[in-house]
Amino acid sequence: MATKTRQFDAAEYLDNEEVIAAYLQDALDDDDPDVFLLAVADVVRARSMTRVSKDSGLGRESLYKTIRPGSRPGFATVTRLLGALGVKLAAVPARKSVPAQKVAAKAAAKPARKAKAGRPAAAKAAKAAKRKTS
Questions:
Q1: Which of 39, 82, 101, 103 is most buried, taking the most CB atoms under 10 A from its CB?
Q2: Are 71 and 64 in contact (CB under 8 A)?
Q3: Residue 31 phi/psi, 5° resolution?
Q4: How far apart are alpha carbons 63 and 81 in whole angstroms?
């Protein structure tokens, strides 16, 4: 007996805003902008092309052109489209920052450096700069 398979369609699983937001965030994490456009196209199909077209104020033909891989939609178009899909863009740090408590703890743990007796800090800095240029 032959096994029947069918092609995977992400649109079938995009049934609420949280799932849609997570799906689009994963697509944004990819360096290829076409991955994001393909993900938006999946969400548009899940929500109905006609409904998204009406909610975003974009004509159906413009909507198809906007979500086509290789297109370069403007920021205003993307935000209108995402608004119609029930999500928005948000800025987050690109890398994890060190919590302020850890920074303060490290600073408190370091012993304070004392200047050598008889040598002002400015003179020490001048001498170091002179060595670098020589």
A1: 39
A2: no
A3: -75, -20
A4: 9
Distances (CA, A) of 77 to 7, 56, 71, 72, 120: 30, 9, 12, 10, 61
Structure tokens at 25: 């965030």
3-state DSSP call for residue 33?
A: helix
DSSP-assigned letter for residue 1: -
Q: How far apart are CA 44 and CA 10, in angstroms?
A: 11
For residue range 8-27, what is the model confidence (pLDDT) as tens digits?
A: 889 998 998 899 999 999 99
Tell me the pLDDT tens digit for each residue of 86-101.
898 888 887 776 666 6
| Structure tokens that stand for 107 in this block | 């600073």
Low-confidence stretches of the chain (pLDDT beneath 50) = none
Residue 98 sits at φ, ψ, to 5 deg, of -80, 130
Global confidence as pTM: 0.65
Q: Alpha-carbon distance 78 to 15, whole Å?
A: 20
